[in-house]
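Task 17 of the worksheet. Students: predict the tertiary structure of the chain below and write it out as structure tokens. Keep your answer in the requested format; marks are given for formatting as well as content.
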Amino acid sequence: MHDAAIACREAGVRAASEKCFDQLHPPSEIWTLRCGYIVLSLRSWLKFPASGWVQTSATPSTDSTFGRSTCRSTGNPPGVTVDTPRPCHTPPMHPGQQIPVGDGVSLHVRRLGEPRPGRPPLLAVHGGPSWDHSYLLPGLEPIAARREVVAFDMRGCGRSTRDLPVEAYQPDLVVEDIRRLIDALGHDTVDLLGFSTGGQVAQLFTEAHPERVRRLVLASTTAYGDVSPYLADWPEYERRAAMATEPPADCTDLQWTVHHARTGAVTAIWDLGRLDAYLRLLDGVVFTGDWLAPWRRGLLRPWRPADPAAVLREWGGRVMILHGEQDMGFPLPLAERLHEAVPGSVLAVIPAAGHMAHVENPGLWVRHVRMFLG
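Model answer:
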């Protein structure tokens, strides 16, 4: 049943890709985003001082319209002609494959798009952790029209190896799985995108193997553990959280995971008009419950470094923090806090979008990723 559901959902994603995400936004957004990333690149290469509508420095801007280096669309300047968006195509989708990474673990890996000279693949790390990678496809497939994208299911998730001993479920072991996967694919470096919990794993990976990461995208994630204060006194969050129900006391770990994913949908997206579409997306996810046992027993080691900001500063590579403006999982101030702590980082905010910003505004989400990676 899971296979049939995923096949149906993948067909829908491919159909959506054919509509060409380049045409989902007006030319004004195309112009400002292109120019913004040109400015970022010039400042990075030529060491220009922070100025204008966007900056990579963590120093607060005096421009109240744009704030710190948050990428936002602001309209088309007079006299500027914007090229008509080019048509796009459905990227090749290679069948998923099982790749052994040692210690009795095989990862289910999906390769999208084709390798491009001079561009490392984009390796995407999903969240959950008891989800699979498929819910990220609305954001990843359009990116694959121009580069190779590799997505996989973590150990204990989706179609990767399951039913491991409880001690085999640890974030640092996922980090080593990723290193071995990169080796198995024949790459020295990758561009790394981590979403939600996967973004915390990406921080751990950058700490452990900084030489393997060219550029880093931290999407809808956090570097900090103190989330509750940022949710306090947020009436809309409180209203939606009250809609959630507790799962039955006798439910299995798998049922617990599915229950929380579906009842938590009202806080995962901001626009409730998209709720039905988001729930249909979840219908195609192969959920698991394997990570719950070590979590409940208090056995899990940390999902992120002790000082993520220090790790990113020491690494010194390019970092984009990509966040929904109304994220109720990891509220926006957490992203702003990390941005302030990592000079040179880029903060790209998706307006009127929640935790699943790649679902609510895939066109803008994809454009930010494409232009940051180059």
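Marker's comment: DSSP finds 15 helices and nine strands in the chain. The chain has a mean pLDDT of 81.
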